[in-house]
């Protein structure tokens, strides 16, 4: 008895009335164990059905006897999704399994909208909502929303009609180029023209826009003229009256005046553009001061065009550049201010020498070059420059006396061989074997360009040496060879000397 009661409670918990319900309840599977065989347990409670599946009205009961059947159908707005049996049977307290399912009913495709479209975001099944919109320049008449309901789409087919402009603008002192229509459709245009002697301002063509109005605003037809500009101290270089719309004129300021503004003007709707300029006298500020110099004229805060100033330098300095500057059109003095450069007196004079260039005075940085007269050599820097202190630096060079090339002697030679010989320079003479020097072997270049002691005269044959040298036949042979070579050498010198003398 307790077992039967438990099973009855279990079936009562699982059974619900689904007519008109919207919540899905899991279906009862046929795999449940059948209850114990009693008269009561053989009955079935109201079945639990798949989502959107309901009992037909004639099958609706609270208790179903064993082997009784119930018929199924879909909720309103839904249609069978499978072609299977729509009947279930009560078998020993359990309903047979059903594969019958339902799906949303379709309202079908919507008719295309000429010059518009539907915005379908939820599909076309039961409950879906779609919006309609028209192309640019078209407007929708009626509701823009349709809903898929039990009997199909709500509302009627939507129409998009072209936007029309019915108010054609008129303008003063002008008219449309062609006879206007009573109304214009979206995108159609009207072009205007002005009467003679009137100028058009704005776009000549206007168009019927999406809001049913013409855009942009229609043009204006105005008669424009500009008065002749009066600009003191200026001269007109281009343009002449009368000045109508877009007439031009150009002005330039007179010499000594500068222009504030633009000289090229155009006659526009509101007058001259840009506004006429004005000409003011050119002025220059106080000119630049210079080091070691001054401005001789009166020093002013402002100088008018054409005024001049003069510069001068202090003692010991010389003006480099133009001394007179003038205030010119640019508002500056011209040329650039001069500079005062330090000057030096004539450079030091050196004995037996001279310098170049020779000037009355020398500017700082200017150099002179020293040179010596013949028979003297420069000792020290050859160039000296006028310094910022007003003296030449470095110290001037000296011209030191030189000696001539030492004389040559027969059968002898000297050393060193130089281009010139300064005071104190030593020269040494020597003779070959068998000869001896007639005079001093070493001489020194002394003051006055002379050698001291005097150079030797020659290398003469030393007979005493010959006597000793010739004690052997081999020595005699050597002596003979030496004499032969000496005579040959002397003969060559005589030939060269004869050629030099033109003999």
From TrEMBL:
Protein name: Complement receptor type 2-like
The organism of origin for this protein: Astyanax mexicanus
Protein keywords: Disulfide bond, Membrane, Signal, Sushi, Transmembrane, Transmembrane helix
PANTHER family: COMPLEMENT FACTOR H-RELATED (PTHR45785:SF2)
GO MF: complement component C3b binding
Regions that span the bilayer: 461-485
Record Pfam families: Sushi
The keyword Transferase appears for this protein: no
Subcellular location: Virion
InterPro entries associated with the record: ComplSys_Reg/VirEntry_Med (IPR051503), Sushi/SCR/CCP_sf (IPR035976), Sushi_SCR_CCP_dom (IPR000436)
Cysteines engaged in disulfide bonds, as pairs: 165-208, 194-221, 284-327, 313-340
SUPFAM superfamilies hit by this protein: Complement control module/SCR domain
Chain ranges of the Sushi domain: 42-104, 105-162, 163-223, 224-281, 282-342, 401-461
GO BP field: complement activation
Signal peptide: 1-20
GO cellular component: extracellular space
CDD domains: CCP
């Amino acid at each position: 008895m307790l077992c039967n009661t438990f099973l009855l409670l279990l079936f009562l918990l699982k059974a619900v009335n689904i007519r008109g319900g919207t919540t899905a309840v899991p279906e009862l599977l046929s795999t449940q164990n059948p209850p114990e065989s009693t008269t009561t347990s053989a009955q079935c409670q109201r079945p639990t059905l798949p989502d959107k599946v309901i009992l037909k009205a004639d099958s609706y009961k609270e208790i179903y006897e064993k082997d009784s059947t119930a018929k199924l159908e879909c909720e309103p707005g839904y249609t069978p999704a499978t072609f299977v049996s729509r009947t279930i049977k009560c078998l020993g307290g359990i309903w047979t399994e059903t594969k019958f399912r339902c799906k949303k009913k379709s309202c079908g495709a919507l008719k295309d909208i000429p010059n518009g479209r539907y915005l379908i975001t939820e599909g076309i099944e039961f409950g879906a909502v779609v919006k309609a919109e028209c192309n640019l320049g078209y407007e929708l008449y009626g509701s823009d929303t349709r809903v898929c309901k039990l009997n199909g789409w709500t509302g009627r087919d939507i129409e998009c009609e072209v936007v029309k402009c019915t108010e054609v603008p008129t303008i003063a002192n002008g008219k449309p180029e062609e006879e206007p229509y009573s109304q214009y459709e979206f995108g159609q245009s009207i072009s205007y023209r002005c009467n003679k002697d009137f100028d058009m301002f704005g776009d000549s063509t206007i168009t019927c826009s999406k809001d049913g109005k013409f855009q942009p605003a229609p043009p204006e037809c105005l008669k424009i003229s500009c008065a002749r500009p009066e600009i003191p101290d200026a001269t007109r270089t281009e343009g002449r009256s009368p000045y109508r719309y877009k007439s031009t004129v150009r002005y330039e300021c007179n010499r000594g005046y500068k222009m504030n503004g633009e000289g090229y003007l155009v006659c526009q709707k509101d007058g001259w553009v840009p506004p006429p300029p004005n000409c003011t006298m050119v002025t220059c500020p106080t000119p630049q001061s210079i080091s070691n110099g001054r401005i001789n004229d009166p020093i002013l805060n402002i100088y008018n065009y054409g005024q001049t100033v003069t510069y001068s330098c202090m003692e010991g300095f010389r003006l480099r550049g133009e001394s007179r500057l003038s205030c010119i059109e640019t508002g500056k003095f011209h040329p650039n201010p001069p500079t005062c450069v330090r000057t030096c007196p004539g450079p030091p004079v050196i004995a037996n020498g001279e310098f170049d260039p020779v000037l009355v005075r020398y500017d700082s940085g200017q150099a002179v070059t020293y040179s010596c007269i013949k028979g003297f050599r420069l000792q020290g820097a050859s160039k000296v420059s006028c310094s910022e202190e007003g003296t030449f630096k470095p110290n001037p060079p000296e011209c030191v006396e030189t000696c001539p090339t030492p004389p040559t002697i027969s059968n002898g030679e000297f050393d060193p061989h130089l281009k010139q010989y300064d005071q104190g320079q030593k020269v040494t003479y020597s003779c070959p074997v068998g000869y001896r020097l007639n005079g001093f072997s070493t001489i020194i270049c002394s003051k006055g360009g002379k050698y001291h002691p005097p150079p030797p005269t020659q290398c003469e044959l030393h007979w005493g040496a010959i006597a000793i040298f010739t004690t052997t036949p081999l020595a005699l042979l050597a002596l003979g060879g030496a004499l032969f070579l000496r005579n040959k050498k002397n003969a060559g010198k005589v030939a060269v000397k004869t050629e030099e003398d033109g003999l």
